[in-house]
Specification:
AsnC family transcriptional regulator, disordered C terminus, 2 helices, Alpha-Beta Plaits, 4-stranded antiparallel beta sheet, single chain, globular, alpha+beta
Length: about 80
């Protein structure tokens, strides 16, 4: 089974509410959350045959782009 890795990030919300990305995709089988923050952006590993399902679940509230491999636990680089 082939997998695809990408980042799902929250679109700028107009009403101030931020969706929980992990909750949005939780019903899709075999999706692995690799890391990130659920209300901001997460990297996911998705079976290629489930990609369309994931995209349709999040398209109204999130953007999908090539994985950026977030590492929030490492902190933000100093200025």
């Amino acid at each position: 089974m082939k997998n695809i890795e990408f980042t799902i990030s929250v679109k700028r919300p107009f009403d101030g509410a931020r969706p929980d990305i992990v909750s949005l995709i939780s019903d899709v089988p075999d999706v692995v959350v690799l890391g990130g923050e659920s209300d901001y952006a997460v990297d996911v590993l998705v079976p290629i045959e489930r990609e369309a399902q994931v995209r349709s679940l999040v398209e109204a509230t999130c953007d999908i782009e090539e994985s950026q491999e977030f590492s929030f636990l490492g902190g933000i680089p100093g200025r």
